[in-house]
Amino acid sequence: MTAAPRLSWTDVRNVIRARIVARDYALGARLPRDEDIAQELGCTRTTVHRAMQDLAAAGLIDRKRKGGTHVLADPITRATIDIPVTRSEVEALGRAYAHRMISTHRAPSPAPIMARFGAAQPREMLQITALHLADARPYMLEDRWVDLATCPEIMTVDFAQISANEWLVRHKPYTRVEMRFFAINADAGIAAQLGCNVGQALLTLERTTWLEAAPITTVQATAAPGYVLASKS
Amino acid sequence: MTAAPRLSWTDVRNVIRARIVARDYALGARLPRDEDIAQELGCTRTTVHRAMQDLAAAGLIDRKRKGGTHVLADPITRATIDIPVTRSEVEALGRAYAHRMISTHRAPSPAPIMARFGAAQPREMLQITALHLADARPYMLEDRWVDLATCPEIMTVDFAQISANEWLVRHKPYTRVEMRFFAINADAGIAAQLGCNVGQALLTLERTTWLEAAPITTVQATAAPGYVLASKS
DNA sequence: AAGTGGTCTAGACCACCTT
DNA sequence: AGGTGGTCTAGACCACTTG
Questions:
Q1: Whether A81 contacts B79, CB under 8 Å
Q2: Which end of chain B has fewer beta carbons closer than 10 Å to its terminal beta carbon, N or C?
Q3: CB-based contacts with strand D under 7 Å?
Q4: CA neighbor of B57 nearest in space, from B27, B29, B80, B38
């Protein structure tokens, strides 16, 4: 007889996932303890744990100490989206990148901007409007607010040399980010900047970042018509 | 002297992340080997590995055998989005859910649908159009195609009882999913169904699923005005 | 060819949560 | 109070990838 091949954690994950998919473990059902599965499959609990961790990250199961492991009763679809620096995104498309600063304006944050940060009081900020171009055509319009308390250096940046987007990503790492996606109709100002018709439906990405509790920047990036955001593999 | 507290992998992750954030490890720079970090911090390589795994999942570093661990030269923002069953989504908002089947139509898949699946040949499918309602008001409009070879049971489902969305999620698990998000202007048909003006900007979620290599379903879900898709914490 | 991350085992203890 | 997942250690071997 041949020796049983040793199971890798991906093997274990595939077995468990197959059982979930086949409804051998029903929606909402409780799975056996890691240790029992380990014994059944002939590996250690550590290996089962690693497999379960992956299934939990994928949103298939829910694990609780003492409560055990359950198949999610309400399955969800979980998608991961990568947003690169706009320059890289354009260049990855094989198009020539350029950017154009439109305006800067120093002011206390208005209420909608405060709301994005969850701030109770207005904060001194720099508003930056800029346009990203691909092959010299409008690609994305940025309306950005940068917190001057957290990021005073932004006042010294030459936006003719580098976009605020790229400068911030390179010099102001964040520890927390929130993103929102929605559709808007182009108003006259946006239409003029993006070179599209008024009323055109546009995808908007709103991104807000913090360094620990300190606000860094919030940006509303409105893409030119035809923009599609795709999930990672 | 007091004993040094034992480090958990989250501690290690926080230390490494702090160094990346502070640019102690520059963009693109190579980090020390796991084992050296383990020795420096006083834990085992396993613990460092677990921390690194988390940072890699977050999109901060890139790891390669022999190549070592590098800080990503082009930082990316990685967002995770959970899409529940529409019924759960509506109920989580504290609104009453209902759905209305609009039409079904059996036909070979047209070219755009084939393209979503990456199929070379047309396949026999069932097209289902349906409307999800929240508090009796239009919430989301679905244009769905279900592969009849993979999922013949769909013909027997009573869509007055359960939406195709919910039935599929409960009975047809998938192993692969692709999602795309974009904005469209409401045409006359969509505007009539969603009760909005023609030309209104609407967010559309396109979702395609497979069981291994076999196509299951693809859906274009167009949300009512005001819909916002938010990333998970 | 050799260095580095990836994984597995075996055992122990911890921490959270349900009962 | 006890059961379950979460984590750490220590050591070994493996597999990928680069030089």
A1: yes
A2: N
A3: A 31, 33-35, 45-46, 49, 52-53, 56, 63-69; B 6-11, 42-47, 50, 64-67
A4: B80
Query: pLDDT tens digits for A156-212?
Result: 999 999 999 999 988 888 888 999 999 999 999 999 999 999 999 999 999 999 988
Of 3.60.20.30, 3.40.630.30, 3.40.50.300, 3.40.1410.10, the CATH number of B86-223 is 3.40.1410.10
Are the beta carbons of A183 and B199 separated by less than 8 Å?
A: no
Test A79 with B80 for CB contact under 8 angstroms: yes
* Residue nearest C15 (alpha carbon to C1'): A65
- In chain B, the percentage of residues whose pLDDT exceeds 90 is 89
> Could you say which DSSP state residue B78 is in?
E
Give tens-digit pLDDT for A69-82.
999 998 899 999 99
Question: Is residue A5 pLDDT above 70, yes or no?
Answer: no
Using the structure, give the distance in angstroms from the CA atom of A121 to the C1' atom of D2, rounded to a whole number. Answer: 49
Inter-chain contact A81–B84, Cβ cutoff 8 Å?
Answer: no
- b/e B103-122 (16+ beta carbons within 10 angstroms → b): ebeeeebeeebbebbeeeee
A212: left (phi over 0), alpha (psi -120 to 50) or beta: left
Query: Which residues 86-125 of A have a C-beta within 8 angstroms of B?
Result: 88
Asked if B83 has any chain A CB less than 8 Å from its own CB, the reply is yes
When pLDDT is cut at 50, 70 and 90, the band that residue B1 belongs to is very low
Q: Which of B57, B179, B185 sits opposite A201 (nearest CB)?
A: B185
Nearest to A229 among B78, B181, B185 (CB): B181
List the CATH code of the domain at B9-71: 1.10.10.10
Domain boundaries, chain B: 9-71, 86-223
Q: Do domains A9-71 and A86-223 have the same CATH topology?
A: no
